[in-house]
């Protein structure tokens, strides 16, 4: 039998409570939420590796990335409770999650390109990514 110290038990209780609250707020951790969380982690890790490879790794940018990911999860929570309050289904929540999964997927592909693996990205997709990158730079220049 495994014996835990009081500190270990407290840590497990805190994380269990945090997980239960998160699951309640987000409408349960189903396959859709799991996919979103996996995409979020892959995007963040590939972003870190790409920044390391390009010499642009900065803790401030990394923290901004974490804040954006948390904001995404907050919006999923809001969408879940809009569904609960108005519709009794998970329509808004699912639509929001699908949109974020698509956005995270594009970001992962961009990160892979920045990491030097662009040759594995289909040409039509690379062309579209280049167009998106140019549009982003144009918008940043006009702010």
UniProtKB/TrEMBL annotation:
One of its GO terms (cellular component) is membrane. It comes from the Bacteria. It is a multi-pass membrane protein. It is found in: Membrane. This is Phage holin. InterPro entries: Phage_holin_4_1 (IPR006480). The keyword Membrane applies. It comes from Sporomusa ovata. The lineage of its organism: Bacteria, Bacillati, Bacillota, Negativicutes, Selenomonadales. The keyword Transmembrane applies. The chain crosses the membrane at residues 9-26, 32-50, 70-88. Keywords: Membrane, Transmembrane, Transmembrane helix.
